[in-house]
Write a structure and sequence with these properties.
mainly alpha, about 100 residues
């Protein structure tokens, strides 16, 4: 019986670690989306205020690069979330056998 309870405790610890990874992945996605929304609102606000620099090619390039980095960050977070979710489901199935 000692081995079974040790295995279950180890599986439960792995499940808890995966839950943390899953939460971190979701937070990365949310942060990237919020960053992108703030960027869009900032650009529209500056355009509405009449700041001419916002409409230049350089400023648009900077906004594009920031949006690209945010999209990559969201993609990495999404990948981590999906992996942790799959691994957690497999461990839960193994635990409930």
């Amino acid at each position: 019986m000692g081995r079974t309870s040790t295995k279950k405790a180890k599986l439960q610890q792995q499940i808890d670690e995966l839950e943390l990874k899953k939460r971190n992945g979701m937070m990365r996605c949310i942060v990237a989306i919020v960053c992108f929304i703030v960027l869009i609102v900032l650009k529209l606000t500056l355009q509405g205020s009449g700041v001419e620099f916002v409409n230049t090619v350089q400023a648009n390039g900077v906004f594009f690069v920031i949006a690209l980095v945010a999209a990559g960050f969201a993609g990495i977070g999404s990948r981590d979330w999906a992996r942790a979710r799959r691994e957690q489901a497999a461990l839960l199935q193994k635990l409930h056998r």
